[in-house]
């Protein structure tokens, strides 16, 4: 399934994935997804009052690869009551990668996603996540959040990616303004994390 040159704007979900959630259906688990040259603007996952993880724009739990290239994510947000920080802000303002997921993100920009400096633009909780030649940045300091939170011992490759003004809000994250790795799972997998050629500019 391919999305090419699509725009997702001002969409709302009450559980997972403000624009798109994919992978929970047993009949669709083995279909790969591709997003090329798409825009995700001001989407919201408001899972307040639930235990759902979020994903302001995208939420994935598919066993087949998800490929995202040349896309722009702007002003997306995930909110919920229960968080790892004070305030009602949820996980993965732009992308939430759930435990079964295999995700490749390349040549994408993530701009001003989130609010109040809480939680992260990308939540990596899946089997494998590759982030290459991307930019996670803030022009509005009031929205500035952590760039990436990794809480699952999978395979993570972050290559040639820029982190600009992440965690610069008054509610600066207690741990890891750019990237935080804190495995909360009892997975039998051994983490393989590669961070290469990245820039962290605050």
Could you characterize what this model shows?
With 202 residues, the protein is mainly β. The chain contains no helices and 23 strands. The protein has strands at 2-4, 7-9, 12-13, 20-22, 33-36, 39-41, 44-46, 58-60, 65-69, 72-74, 77-79, 95-97, 102-106, 109-111, 120-124, 128-132, 135-137, 146-150, 155-159, 162-164, 179-181, 192-196, 199-201. Strands 1-5-9-13-16-19-22 form a 7-stranded parallel sheet, with no helix packed on it. It is globular. The N and C termini lie far apart (38 Å). Residues 83-89 have low confidence and may be disordered.
Structure characteristics:
0% helix, mainly beta, 7-stranded parallel beta sheet, globular, 202 residues
Q: Report the mean per-residue pLDDT as an integer.
A: 86
Q: Whole-number radius of gyration?
A: 15 Å
Q: What is the succession of H and E elements? A: EEEEEEEEEEEEEEEEEEEEEEE
Main beta-sheet strand count, sense and barrel state: 7 strands, parallel
- Helix/strand-derived category reads mainly beta
Strand content: 35-45%
User: How far apart, in Å, are the first and last alpha carbons?
Assistant: 38 Å
As laid out across the biggest beta sheet, the strand order is: 1-5-9-13-16-19-22
By DSSP, the count of extended strands is: 23
Tally the helices: 0
Helix content: under 10%
Low-confidence stretches: 83-89
């Amino acid at each position: 399934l391919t999305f090419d040159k699509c725009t997702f704007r001002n969409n709302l979900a009450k559980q997972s994935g403000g624009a798109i959630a994919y992978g929970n259906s047993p009949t669709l688990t083995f279909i790969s997804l591709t997003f090329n040259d798409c825009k995700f603007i001001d989407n919201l996952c408001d899972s307040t009052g639930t235990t759902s993880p979020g994903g302001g724009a995208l939420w994935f739990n598919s066993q087949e690869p998800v490929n995202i290239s040349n896309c722009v994510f702007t002003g997306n947000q995930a909110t919920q009551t229960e968080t790892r920080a004070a305030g009602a802000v949820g996980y993965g303002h732009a992308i939430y990668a759930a435990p079964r997921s295999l995700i490749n993100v390349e040549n994408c920009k993530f701009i001003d996603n989130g609010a109040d400096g809480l939680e992260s633009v990308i939540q990596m909780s899946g089997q494998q996540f590759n982030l290459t030649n991307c930019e996670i940045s803030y022009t509005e300091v009031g929205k500035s959040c952590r760039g990436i939170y990794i809480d699952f011992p999978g395979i993570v490759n972050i290559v040639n990616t820029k982190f600009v003004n992440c965690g610069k809000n008054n509610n600066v994250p207690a741990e890891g303004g750019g990237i935080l790795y804190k495995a909360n799972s009892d997975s039998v997998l051994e983490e393989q994390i590669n961070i290469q050629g990245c820039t962290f500019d605050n």
